[in-house]
Amino acid sequence: MIWALGLLVAALAFAGVSAPWWWAAFTRRSALRRRAANVAAYRGRLEELESDAQAGVLPAEAIEATKQELAARLLQDTQAPAPAPLEQKPARALLALVAAALVAFAGTWYALAGSWRTQALLDLARTNPELARAQAVDDEIVRLREQVSARPDDAESWAWLGRSLAGRGNYADAAQALGRASELKAQQDPDLLVEEGEALAYAQNRAMAGAPAEKFAQALALAPDHTRGLWFAGIAAFQSGDALGAIRHWERLMAQPLPDDTRATLEHSLAMLRERTGVKAPPKATARAPVAPSGQLALKVNVSVAPELASAIAPDAALFIFAQDPAGPPMPLAVQRLSAAQLPVQVTLDDSMGPMPTRKLSSVSRWRIVARISAGGTAVPQPGDLEGSVELDKADAGKPVRVVIDRRRP
Fold first, then answer.
1. What sign does the CA torsion over 91, 94, 98, 103 have?
2. Residue 85, SS3?
3. Is the pLDDT of residue 141 over 60?
4. What CATH number does the domain located at 151-277 have?
5. What is the pTM of this model?
């Protein structure tokens, strides 16, 4: 549609530029045709008068007077001035039409290209980056809805629509979209099943019983060591009163590389459940640092706080350390949550710590590492949070990276 409009404007513009040539030729041809018709009519009338004279229908004086009148009219027609090369009124009207078409074309292009929305988002990001991110996600949801409407069998579009809806807290619609994506897959995807189960649980106030628990069970049937599947299946069993089931899932999860805070939470929960059920803990394996599984990329991050900000840290503040794609969406590729009281601290970020199964640390070649201290304990940045960041690429991925928390968010 936009290209057809552009071609129309181009045709009008060409017509306006070339008007001095084609308009003059058109008017001259019209004048010549009119004169030729007058001459032919004059000759025909003369022939009629000659016939009348021979037949004696009209007196000779009347015929001669009529001939002189016809000759005068013909002379007046043939001696009329030539048309002007280009009359002013048609030129002005044409130029006005071209100008109006150009304005309409530019406005339509600007609106369809979304330039004004992009600029508005950039302006908003300078004053309220979180609101700008939320608006960008809303725009993406609109785009994805149009995409799945046009291509209802596109599983990936349905999956991204579900994730975007979940990111905005619309869990019921997110579960439907993720379920549709799962149905369209040629083979069941454990990641999608876990995401659908999580959305279903959040839609019913984090209750895992029923459909969410079924989705986690289906995922584990396909991938018995699925990290998030084991985590949520354990919660579902715990909520339903199946302590032994929760122990079974979480003990299997404990055998995997986990962030320190997740491991500590699991150990506490398992100790409580074992005391309640009388189940003995399995023999302890040799202590090991949380490292990435073989073949996975891992980033070691040393986090400290600038001396001038140390006194501003609240005792119960949370510390978030995460990696982002500098050229992509703000969703973290890997994240850890600790207590700010643990600073300075070294952590390892790897593929197992990503909130999105399809967006992993190893899927990009450059990262922004951010360390943020949140007094309110929320992952959403707030004014007054203390923050530090650094960027690195794969060439530096094997070395520990140092992040200093040295600024306060405005």
1. positive
2. coil
3. yes
4. 1.25.40.10
5. 0.45
